[in-house]
Task: structure prediction
Amino acid sequence: MCLAVPGRLEKVTVELDETFRIGKVSFEGIIKEVNLALVPEAKIGDYLLVHVGAAIGIIDEEEAKRTMEVLKEMGEDLIE
Result:
């Protein structure tokens, strides 16, 4: 099963050009480095769907929080 987890873009750490960027994304306080190449329009504060270390889409804050709640209810420890 494939799963994308929502997180908030906190900081862009590498920017080789306007497309290839790496950022720090917070998953409820757990910070991970994420490839932002598939979401070049993402900006700090945006909520992203992250799959296997790559942001694959931008979602609104309400959807991100709702998704994280469902994952918690499932009892999954998905970030580690």
The helical segments are 61-73. DSSP finds one helix and five strands in the chain. The first helix runs from residue 61 to 73.
